[in-house]
Specification:
Hypothetical protein af1432, Rossmann fold, 2 domains, alpha/beta
């Protein structure tokens, strides 16, 4: 039984939540309280898997409550459930919350969001990744365009015109996302001149993932120099991996997620560079001196590695499970059998990363048993030539 704590100062809202979630009683042990003080007192008595709170409340507001929960109960997943007219306050809380949901929120969406966050616990073998993520501190707060885009994409059958209007509020970000749409391989057969034009072929959900990718690359920029680390190098490698992924035999229905996973597979490196530069620099130095994989040394120093950190953060930010799994396991995939109809998202992320890494760094990142199970070992020469052609083309 998962323990979920709901906080709202409006009795009718709490009563509505309790009625709406009645069917979850067999899966969740739910508590409903009317203030931040009551919530903290209850958290002191027993652990909760997640807290779902309003933002505007008297005495202790939602922002202060989330700050206390983050500091005192870091293992508890934090969800904001906020009304439209509370947008300004909700934005202040966005950097503290793992998930933002707008009122009114249907029960299916709320349950799916909470369940996904609660599943994070068993994903990792110990608390090391949680500790590293806690060291990251506040997540980047979304700007007005980001928040508006998230809200719009949460609506069923949102018109493309509404998405286009939101995107045009930040022309600089729109230009960077459009560049990514074209350069990462979504525009294989033609280039898109606007995000409105791209929204059809790319589809709206992948477009929001690309927007998030641009935000991540923009936000996580280290303030100090780290020996052996280049943020620009990570960005260029990620975009080459995405272009390689777009040219692998990927089934049409998983194409967008596979390319996105390849693009975001090393986001954990940027997070470590910004928040834990000292341990990252030690890991890089040791890996180079001892000629060992960076992720293995990170496990020794941190108890986790950049792949797990990246996967954890992408999960709490709401990306699909297939992308999160591919990012988390791109160094250590495991095949359950041959895939006859193309590569899955994990296989694409592993292969795209390895193809570019071995070309640029001379590394040997392949899992040979995995490749044998996939039945693609004989295609490696052609794929290596393709990766070299992409790198030679430049422009990314």
């Amino acid at each position: 039984m998962k323990r979920i704590l709901f906080v709202d100062d409006e009795p009718k809202v709490l009563e509505g939540l309790e009625r709406m979630l009645h069917a979850q009683r067999k899966q969740w042990e739910m508590s409903f309280v009317a203030s931040g003080a009551e919530a903290l007192a209850l958290l002191e008595t027993r652990p909760f898997d997640a807290i779902v709170t309003d933002v505007r409340m008297p005495e202790m507001g939602g922002v202060r409550l989330l700050e206390c929960v983050q500091q005192r109960f870091p293992a508890t997943m934090r969800v904001v459930l906020s009304g439209f007219f509370e947008r300004e306050a909700a934005l202040k809380a966005a950097g503290l919350a793992h998930q933002y949901l707008a009122k009114p929120c249907d029960p299916e969406r709320l349950c799916e969001a909470v369940e996904r966050l609660c599943r994070l616990g068993p994903v990792f073998s110990d608390e090391a990744t949680r500790r590293v993520v806690a060291a990251v501190g506040r997540l980047p707060s979304p700007g007005r365009t980001d928040a508006g885009l998230i809200e719009a994409l949460g609506k069923p059958d949102v018109p493309l015109e509404e998405v286009d209007r939101i995107l045009r509020q930040d022309e600089g970000m729109s230009a960077r996302v459009l560049d990514l749409v074209n350069s990462a391989g979504f525009g294989l057969f033609c280039e898109f001149a606007s995000l409105y034009q791209a929204a059809g072929p790319v589809e709206l959900e992948p477009l929001s993932h690309l927007w998030l990718a641009v935000e991540i690359f923009r936000t996580f920029q280290p303030d100090c120099s780290i020996a052996g680390f280049s943020p620009e190098g990570v960005r260029r490698h990620s975009r080459r991996a995405a272009r390689i992924a777009a040219r692998l035999p990927v089934p049409r229905e998983t194409f967008a997620e596979a390319v996105t996973a390849a693009l975001l597979h090393d986001v954990g490196k940027l997070v470590l560079a910004v928040r834990l530069p000292g341990p990252l620099e030690r890991a890089l130095e040791t890996a180079a001196r001892e000629n060992r994989p960076q992720c293995a040394v990170e496990q020794e120093i941190l108890g986790t590695d950049h792949a797990e950190v990246g996967g954890f953060l992408l999960s709490v930010w709401g990306l699909p499970r297939t992308i999160v799994d591919a990012v988390t396991r791109h160094h250590h995939p495991a095949a359950e059998g041959p895939l006859l109809d193309g590569l899955d998202v994990l296989a694409v992320a592993h292969t795209a990363n390895a193809l570019d890494a071995e070309r640029s760094a001379g590394a040997d990142p392949w899992d040979s048993e995995y490749l044998a199970a996939l039945g693609v070992a004989d295609r490696l020469p052609a794929w290596r030539a393709m990766a070299e052609q992409i790198a030679s083309a430049g422009g990314i």
